[in-house]
Fold RNase adapter RapZ.
Amino acid sequence: MTPTVHATAVALDGRAVLLLGPSGAGKSDLALRLIDRGWRLVADDRVVLTVRDGALWASAPAPIAGLIEVRGVGIVAEPALREARVALVIDLAGTPERLPEAASRDFGGIAIPCAMLSPRDESAPLKVERALQARVPAVKAPVPAAPALPAETPPILIVSGMSGAGKSSTLKALEDLDYEAVDNLPLDMVDSLFNSAEGGDGPPRPLAFGIDTRTRAFDAEALVVRLRTLRAEGVDIRLLYLDCSDDELTRRFSETRRRHPLAADRPAADGIGRERTLTAPLRRWADMVIDTTGLSVADLRRRIAEQLGRSADGGLTVTIESFGFAAGLPRDADLVFDMRFLANPHWDVALRPLTGEDPAVAAYVAADPAFAPAVDRIADLLLTLLPRYGAEGKAYLTIAVGCTGGRHRSVAVACELHDRLTAAGHAPLLVHRDVASNGNDAAILTAAPLTGQGSAT
């Protein structure tokens, strides 16, 4: 039996969710929002259901395979699975109950768990994911294979972002990490570059190429679509977005006397504002964002090496970074812990010139009665969160530990957390942002800007 039903199907990790409801109920809109979160389209508007091997499978009728209706835009192409096993039904037609009882729908003798949701809720995609997690355990369901690729394919990194944020310096740093780097590459040449790398002798080298608003026919939305298509085809391709504060970008262009590429006859601030709007989709979709506002060229190169040089396995790269609140929060911090409640070694004249890496300072900080319970709870929290971040596909996580000046308490705690996570089987990176500053624990700390060791890029 292969009935066709009026529905939309999307899948996550090989498990398909069937969205049921009348025309205009919001099936395609909800599917689009789920796809935006990493789901894959199976079929839109009409779904072919097939009972096979004791399971229900969903696929698209041939004429509409790989197509989805986007209201106000039209019918657009979307990378899609040829088939996926149906694990859950979401009914969009009725009124959801606050605390519903377990329910199911029968399709050809196969009972499928069912939930009722309102597709217009802002949280609807999250509710679909939670319903799938609650009702259907993750399984390794067969997924149709993507188009075959060579056994060894080089990873590709796109470097983009704001002009003046350090793209040229980043590409040079990547060359030092054995990347083949190309700047200002038109998107339609990606396939040619990829194929040429496959034809060389020896193991293929990873590729890095810069794309920004200077690129001919630059279109951020089209670039995002192309990235997602390549990923669906099995290409290991990631996007790095370089950001920087508007004030710092203006200063860099002023110091180097360069014109902003989007403001040839206008103030640099106008070009910066326009570029931020044009590149917003790239920042939203980036696998990694590095803010270079307070980074020197050396800092940026170190950050690139830390983030990319040790993440070849594709897992979660964890960075523990100590810092001083006097110099501001790290702009790329995901989690921030404040250590200013601990006893401050700065007020001990003998300890003041030392740092939290010195045993005497570490012992002083650890002697505070609040140290052990606080660090125990933070470590437990991190050990709980890290696997979850990894399961959700997050590639990079920065844990920021701060005190006033960033030289004593934050450094000692960061080292302790690094040791605990390492003992638990993780491999976190350890960075002390402000440890090289002067000994005044309340000083306003500064960092050499990118333009201080080279031209703005």
Summary: The chain has three domains: 4-135, 153-309, 310-457. The longest strand covers residues 4-12. Confidence is low (pLDDT under 50) at residues 138-152, 310-314, 439-449, 451-457.
